[in-house]
Amino acid sequence: xxxxxxxxxxxxxxxxxxxxxxxxxxxxxxxxxxxxxxxxxxxxxxxxxxxxxxxxxxxxxxxxxxxxxxxxxxxxxxxxxxxxxxxxxxxxxxxxxxxxxxxxxxxxxxxx
Length: 112
Prior knowledge:
- This protein has 112 residues and is an all-alpha fold.
- Helix content is 82%, strand content 0%.
- The chain has helices at 6-24, 26-44, 47-60, 65-77, 81-94, 99-111.
- Helix 2 (26-44) packs antiparallel against helix 3 (47-60), helix 3 (47-60) packs antiparallel against helix 4 (65-77) and helix 4 (65-77) runs antiparallel to helix 5 (81-94).
- 27% of the residues are buried.
- Its main location: cytoplasm.
């Protein structure tokens, strides 16, 4: 017997929604490409440039938690903890239990 909790169902539906959007619109595909470019820049330590790409991706899907959290991380890495805290709080307003945002908020608060 397999038990599926509400969290599993929610994640599955979020994934399904993302796939549907990705297949339907070229803008969504471009947004995903922008975000991948941003991730690459983050790994190189080029945070300011990464924020530009993340903002372009967020124009298509402004409530994408992963993207918003990554932008908060960039501000934190650029030594702007107040801005990062404000941005991560925006993510937590969308989903108060989003683990990556909670973890980042803890790191930001610890650094203050």
